[in-house]
Every structure is written in C-alpha cells, then in structure tokens.
Amino acid sequence: MSTRKLTSRNWFGKASAGAIPGFLLSLALCGVFARFGPGEVGFFSPQAQFTMWLMAPLWACILSFCFLFQTGARAWLWLGGASIVLWGLLYASGPLMA
Known about the structure:
The chain is an all-alpha fold. The chain is about 75% helix and about 0% strand. The chain has three helices and no strands. Helix 1 (about 10-35) packs antiparallel against helix 2 (about 45-65) and helix 1 packs parallel to helix 3. The longest helix is centred in the N-terminal third of the chain and has 26 residues, at about 10-35. It starts with 10 loop residues before the first helix and ends with a helix.
C-alpha cells in the first residue's frame, strides 16, 4: 500500500479553498440544519441561535482539514462541489417547505 507524504507545498491554494468554498460549505450546512432540523426556525428560537453559533466551529473545522488534501485544486474541487450540491439542495427544497 502506497502512502503519500503530506507537505506544506501549495498551502495558499489549500488555505484559500478552506476560506472561500469552505465558508460557503459551512453556510450551506447551517442552512440545511435550519431547514430540515427539528422545530421551526424563528428569529430568537433556540434552533436559530444554535445554527448561528454552529457556523464558526464548522468553518474552523473545514479550514483545519483543508490541508489534508493533496493539492489545492483538489481542495477547491471537493469543497466547491460539496458546496454546490448543498446549495442546490437548499434551493430545490424551497418550494417543498413553503
């Protein structure tokens, strides 16, 4: 079994992938939780507060783990693709929840 060594090469591509599509991914994950989570989301509801406070730890985790990708391009593709899928799910579920 071949293992690849993690290096600090291409750190800017990985960090920018964690910052830009990683932010969009964490925002979409919070949106999915708010849309499909338990209870109704009101402005001051516990679910809204939990969703609001969930954003920062999710983004921090994505920023931390984005350096485990082999290249910056892979990080951009995976994080961007996951973000597009989740935003598509939120967009498609809009009429269903109305």
